[in-house]
Amino acid sequence: MAEEKFEDAMKRLESIVQDLEDGDLSLESSLTAFEDGMKLLKFCSAKLEEAEKKVTLLVRESGGKTAQVPFDIEETRDGE
Amino acid sequence: MDTQAPKVYTVSEITRELQGILESHFDFVWLEGEVSNFTSPVSGHYYMVIKDERSQIRGVMFRPQVRYLKFLPENGMRVIAQGRVSVYAPRGEYQFLLDYLEPMGVGALALAFEQLKQKLASQGLFDAQLKKPLPFLPQRVAVITSPTGAAVRDFLKVIGRRFANMEIIVVPVRVQGDEAAGEIAEALDMVNRELEVDVIVLTRGGGSLEDLWAFNREEVALAIRRSLKPVVSAVGHEIDVTISDLAADLRAPTPSAAAEILVREKDALRARLAETAKRLTSAQEQRLRLWRRDLLRLSRGVRDPGKRLGEIWMRLDELQGRLTRAMLHSLRKRRERLRSEGRALRTHSPTARIRLMSQRIEFGRASLRRAVSRRMENAQKAASLLDKRLKDLSPLAILGRGYSIARRLPEKTVIRSAADTDAGDRIEVLLGEGELACRVEKAFHKMG
Fold first, then answer.
1. Closest chain B residue to the Cα of A55, Cα to Cα
2. A80, B146: Cβ pair inside 8 Å?
3. What is the ipTM of this complex?
4. pLDDT in tens, B377-421
């Protein structure tokens, strides 16, 4: 899933930051690294906010197929 | 009928009568005892002996009744059985037909739970290394639960309160009763098959052991382990531990706790990203500050090169002038020193001294000569004086006063005593002036 790309992006981002903090990069390399870091940062932030807060209920329709309908939390009762 | 002759039964007849008496009298009986000789052949029927200290009775439970049994009887187990007595004619045995069986002391369900737990544990179904880690970024979550229960309500409340942006799909199932286990297992398989989710949550609210029984069934445990996505199990209250809890990849004590865990994963990720962003910009700012500082330093050094050069030339000239002056000065001083030394040297010329010295030497020599000659004179004077004295003292001088020395001839030995001579000896006599050659006429010994 997109999840794997996110995890890779996070790892790459953290490694870039580590390189910059170590201070061994030349001026040019550090500028490129910073740019890449910013791009990855944007990607990760976007991914985090991507999911919509949505609650649905799976229902089985005729023909055995499943569909998702909005779920109303109000209709619940204790004991289950 | 002949009443005097006793009835002669056939075996079948007496068996039939026994059967009738026993089966009608012991039609519905509760029996307690200990299980032994338990067997369960492939037919699915259970055969055992139920006994106490003194007696025993054969027991059998047929498959339709076995089906409802939740636990497996074991030898030595104390049980309470319900059933009826029957006679098995072909073997002439009576036996107990069990309709129901339960262990004494421990509940049947609790025992069944223990037995299944041990069985699955020994199969390695609960092994830690099988457990999958929670997803890195939980975005889509399937919740298998009752759509009307308290569990889903609590779960969604926590999600809502934390403003988590997650997509939740509620998969409705029965959560108790006989069909529940099957539905739950099927739901797990279906979610894996048809939905794209990051994690599955299996949950239901609190209840008795019977209520939660579906989550203690083997088919649910197997379906959990079959799942390709991680499964979080949150069944019952905090103290309830079910087989599904043990089999799942993570157990949450309550449905709310399950929601918390998922939200926390995402929050932690958000915090980590924010932290990384901060580090990224501050690291870069730091680098740029350093670069700028170095650049500034360098640029200051490189400014107005012409001016610098002139300064350097002027300085060189100045240094040269100082050097020349210093050298001249030093040279002059040396020359002066040389001159004064020369003067001093001349005043102390050795020629004068040499002359002086030779004068002194001459003078000294003359004095020495005078002294020596004087000494010699004195010595001569002393010597002649001594000579005179010596002469005076000389025996020859005594001769001058009239004494004479007689000496024997030829030896010239001095004669002291007349006894030393004989008449006729030749002797010489030394006089003050001259000598006499004599002959002894007579020697007179001095008496007295």
1. B168
2. yes
3. 0.74
4. 887 887 777 777 766 666 666 777 788 888 888 888 888 888 888
